[in-house]
Backbone:
């Protein structure tokens, strides 16, 4: 009996979803479209107890149903303003104005992750609360079948309407073109149809693996710069360099000026941006080993309030973030971190590029593969795309390097591209056709023999000159 009472008490505990919680739910609808897409089917205006929140959510959900899209905060304010002009409810107007001010001031940003996590339970309990109110008359009339049906419907809030793909009945669904929204890398060799099919897709996680000093961050900068050239908005998170230093790398890439010369050529750089248009770039720095995926989510939610929504997120780099749970073994923590990043990409409907340190074996390898990802093979298992950069010490001066597609869920992998890197300007150039790792190894051995032969010829020439 005691257990039944405890269960009933927990089910009917509605106080945890009071007015503050409901204001946070409305805020989440306004600032996070991907979350709104998940909740719009189960969230109803009647779930809000405050009249002005019910008023706002009614207009919000009506807009989504009509246009199959989600209104921005500015647009919703415009819709509501026009409607309130025709009425005389000054209190309602003032309450809406005060709420919009709170949203613009980011008053709820820190609470949104918890609210989103509990939102489905909120919907169920609000449905249950109203269902219990409706059953009063049925209880008096002892209409128990109606009571059971009412409660059952209330508890089914959020249940997926789709029962799955019937393989033999829904054959046409398999042959329809699947839309995969992508952000191009800007390198035609990678964006080819048989490789990335246009770029990295929304909700996907890509990782650049390389040893220390091989150019991971420069590669991330190049990917971000290419997206900006195409008009996409980018958020770049850095945990090693400051935001201004990363900004100088973007200046170098765009203006084709060495990073060491950017400051003294300031006027030239500013004139360049006056004559060229790009997407918007936000660079945010955090100290190493302090930021979690929740930290990045909260920052993006703050940007959403200002009507900035990234098309691409770059994290430089994931290995020096903190996971939401601490483990004794670094590999377990890194695996969890990559899983959290993959979930963030899916939740925010954005592609994420990050980087990963290779292990010691990778530092000496001609080709770095997924087994060379430092600390955790699980990182490679989670990522949708894994690229690796490798270059030997004698190649750094010339900029020669190899880019290997170690993993690719969208198309072909196992290909090696010879590339040229200009780390002074964070620029990359593909300089040859793709080959297999075996062919690349053979070419490197041939080059090594030729270098050795040239050395001997040089020494022989020096010896002959001395004899003469």
Residues:
């Amino acid at each position: 009996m005691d257990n039944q009472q405890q269960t009933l008490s927990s089910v009917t505990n509605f106080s945890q979803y009071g007015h503050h919680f409901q204001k946070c739910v409305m805020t989440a609808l306004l600032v996070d479209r991907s979350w709104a897409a998940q909740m719009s089917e189960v969230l109803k205006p009647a779930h809000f107890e405050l009249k002005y929140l019910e008023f706002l959510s009614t207009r919000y959900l009506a807009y989504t149903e009509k246009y199959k899209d989600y209104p921005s905060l500015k647009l919703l304010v415009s819709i509501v303003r026009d409607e309130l002009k025709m009425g005389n409810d000054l209190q309602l107007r003032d309450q809406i104005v005060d709420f919009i001010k709170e949203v613009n001031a980011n008053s709820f940003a820190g609470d949104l992750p918890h609210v989103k996590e509990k939102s489905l339970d909120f919907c169920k309990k609000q449905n249950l609360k109203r269902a219990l109110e409706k059953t009063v008359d049925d209880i008096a009339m002892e209409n128990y079948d109606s009571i059971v049906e009412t409660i059952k419907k209330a508890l089914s809030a959020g249940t997926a309407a789709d029962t799955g793909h019937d393989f033999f009945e829904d054959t046409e669904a398999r042959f329809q073109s699947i839309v995969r929204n992508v952000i191009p890398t800007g390198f035609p060799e990678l964006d080819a149809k048989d490789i990335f099919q246009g770029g990295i897709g929304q909700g996907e996680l890509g990782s650049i693996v390389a040893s220390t000093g091989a150019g991971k961050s420069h590669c991330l900068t190049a990917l971000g710069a290419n997206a900006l050239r195409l008009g996409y908005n980018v958020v770049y998170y850095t945990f090693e360099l400051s935001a201004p230093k990363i900004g100088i790398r973007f200046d170098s890439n765009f203006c084709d000026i060495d990073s060491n010369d950017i400051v003294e050529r300031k006027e030239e750089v500013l004139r360049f941006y006056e004559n060229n248009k790009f997407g918007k770039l936000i660079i945010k720095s955090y100290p190493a080993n302090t930021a979690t995926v929740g930290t990045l989510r909260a920052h993006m939610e703050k940007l959403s309030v200002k009507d900035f929504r990234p098309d691409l997120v770059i994290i430089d780099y994931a290995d020096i973030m903190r996971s939401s749970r601490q483990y004794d073994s670094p590999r377990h923590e890194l695996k969890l971190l990559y899983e959290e990043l993959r979930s963030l990409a899916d939740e925010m409907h954005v592609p994420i590029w990050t980087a990963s340190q290779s292990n010691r074996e990778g530092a000496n390898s001609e080709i770095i593969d997924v087994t060379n990802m430092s600390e955790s093979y699980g990182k490679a298992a989670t990522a949708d795309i894994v690229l690796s950069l490798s270059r030997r010490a004698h190649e750094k001066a010339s900029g020669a390097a190899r880019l290997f597609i170690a993993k690719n869920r969208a198309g072909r992998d196992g290909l090696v591209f010879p590339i040229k890197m200009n780390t002074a300007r964070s620029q990359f150039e593909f300089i040859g056709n793709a080959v297999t790792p075996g062919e690349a190894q053979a070419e490197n051995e041939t080059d090594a023999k030729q270098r050795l032969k040239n050395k001997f010829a040089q020494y022989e020439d020096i010896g002959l000159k001395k004899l003469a």
Remarks:
- Residues 184-435 form a domain with the Rossmann fold fold (CATH 3.40.50.300).
- The two ends are 109 Å apart (CA to CA).
- The first strand starts at residue 182 and ends at 183.
- The chain has 19 helices and eleven strands.
